Amino acid sequence: MLQRIQSVYLLLVSVLMAVAAISPLAIFKDAQGNLLEMRSLGVFLESQKVLATWGVVSIMGLITLLAFICIFLYKNRKKQIVICSVNTVLILFLYVTIAVYSCSGQGSANIDFQTVQYGVVLPFISLIFNVLAQLKIKSDEKLVRSLDRIR
Predict the structure, then answer these.
(1) Which terminus of the chain is more solvent-facing, meaning fewer CB atoms within 10 Å of its CB: N or C?
(2) Phi, psi of 116 (to 5 degrees)
(3) pTM for the complete prediction?
(4) Contact (CB, 8 A) for 134 and 31
């Protein structure tokens, strides 16, 4: 199970997405000069939630869960490939969701964007590991098919 490199890649995807779920995503500044921190659960001003971002945390949790479940489906490589493809689309959709919440927060709460934090980079690294895992699973499937032809 964990002897395969794709299982390690999928475990890294799960860990990175779990860390991204608790990491800061962006910093905003309001009209009074206060700094607001965007996390996956919301936009916070001194530990007070200003804006809820349930979509971000739910997508991050789903990506983490799917990558972890995919590790244990090592006997069904076709299903693993499908789940990795879904995870790739979900990671890309996560960036769209973060952008939508950032833009809506700027409009409704009258805040200005300051900087991006390391929590935004972690899903991109997860995307790379997810694609690597998918490629390795496909190569395993191709190897098994070629051995079936020999028999």
Answers:
(1) C
(2) -95, 140
(3) 0.89
(4) no
